[in-house]
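Ops channel
N.P.: pipeline sanity check, posting one input/output pair.
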């Protein structure tokens, strides 16, 4: 088994070894080795990283890009944007999750906008409870081919009360990217590199922009699996990593507080994170299309990263359920005994 070592000192992480002959003979090691063996049989799965208590136990490339190569993490971008909002509140750029979005967006708001838009807050966008008609699913194509993504998203009719039913919409996350830029006077790329890239020691390449030049707030961001790991660890460690505080210590708790529920999976949703019970433990996960995943299980002090082939559209939801099953039935039990 190819286990790669790297310097995690800046992040407070240490490189460790998967249980293989000559390194560890404990029963828990065999269990972890079997979990990795089961993961290898997932033909869509590209890369896997497993860390516990800041120690990397598994780094595997089954197929596809190397672990330090940026890949399209799809909607994990929403988790990144939510982290940036947490930093913005910590830095005083935003007042808090209850702040209304209309004053932040200013002249970007259509003149004939529904008056209910005045009720929408930063938190509503984070939790997918803005109440606006979705720009995801069957509406996604019309949105991303429109000449002005912000106005298009803000012009959707209200189909629920702000703060009510969860309706997963990439437009909500994009509006967060835009208001971060408006509030700070800096691009979302600059903020991401300064607020996350520098303290976490990760590379954040430039990614897609909308027709007005705002960085896409909910999709098509490229990050390597090794960059995703410290993002999960940042939340597990209550906003600090490598001795540096990135956002307030209550932001993970606030972000992981259930607010809405997915109508497709039944899982709860907080601020940029899904919430699911696995093997009797609470697990929080960021989810990108096709199986780009960050799992954090605070009870086991564990963070897992998975990246997958995005070229196969068929069976995407079933594949992600299989990844959940792999985590629940193989990795969590192995880590519990570690």
């Amino acid at each position: 088994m190819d286990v790669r070592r790297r310097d995690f000192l800046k992040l407070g992480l240490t490189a460790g070894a998967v249980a293989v002959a000559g390194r560890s003979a404990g029963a828990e090691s065999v269990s972890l080795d079997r979990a990795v063996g089961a993961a290898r049989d997932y033909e869509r799965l590209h890369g896997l990283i497993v860390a516990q208590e800041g120690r990397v136990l598994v780094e595997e490339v089954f197929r596809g890009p190397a672990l330090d190569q940026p890949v399209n993490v799809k909607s994990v971008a929403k988790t990144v944007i939510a982290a940036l909002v947490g930093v913005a509140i910590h830095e005083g750029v935003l007042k808090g999750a209850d702040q209304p979005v209309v004053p932040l967006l200013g002249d970007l708001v259509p003149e004939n906008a529904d008056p209910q838009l005045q009720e929408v807050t930063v938190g509503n966008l984070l939790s997918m409870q803005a109440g606006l008609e979705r720009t995801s699913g069957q509406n996604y194509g019309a949105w991303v081919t429109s000449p002005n993504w912000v106005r298009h998203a803000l012009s959707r009719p209200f189909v629920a009360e702000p703060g009510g039913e969860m309706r997963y919409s990439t437009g909500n996350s994009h509006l967060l990217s835009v208001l971060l830029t408006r509030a700070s006077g800096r691009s979302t790329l600059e903020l991401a590199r300064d607020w996350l890239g520098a303290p976490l020691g990760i590379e954040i390449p430039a990614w897609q922009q909308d027709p007005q030049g705002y960085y896409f707030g909910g999709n098509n961001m490229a990050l390597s699996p090794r960059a995703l790991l410290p993002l999960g660890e940042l939340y597990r460690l209550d906003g600090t990593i490598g001795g540096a505080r990135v956002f307030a210590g209550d932001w993970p708790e606030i972000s992981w507080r259930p607010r809405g529920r997915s109508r497709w999976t039944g899982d709860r949703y907080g601020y940029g994170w899904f919430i699911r019970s696995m093997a009797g433990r609470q697990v929080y996960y960021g989810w990108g299309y096709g199986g780009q995943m960050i799992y954090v299980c605070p009870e086991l002090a564990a963070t897992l990263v998975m990246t997958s082939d995005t070229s196969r559209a068929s069976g995407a939801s079933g594949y992600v359920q299989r990844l959940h099953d792999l985590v629940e039935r193989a990795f969590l039990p192995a880590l519990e005994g570690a």
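N.P.: looks fine end to end. Residues 9-69+224-336 form a domain with the Beta-lactamase fold (CATH 3.40.710.10).
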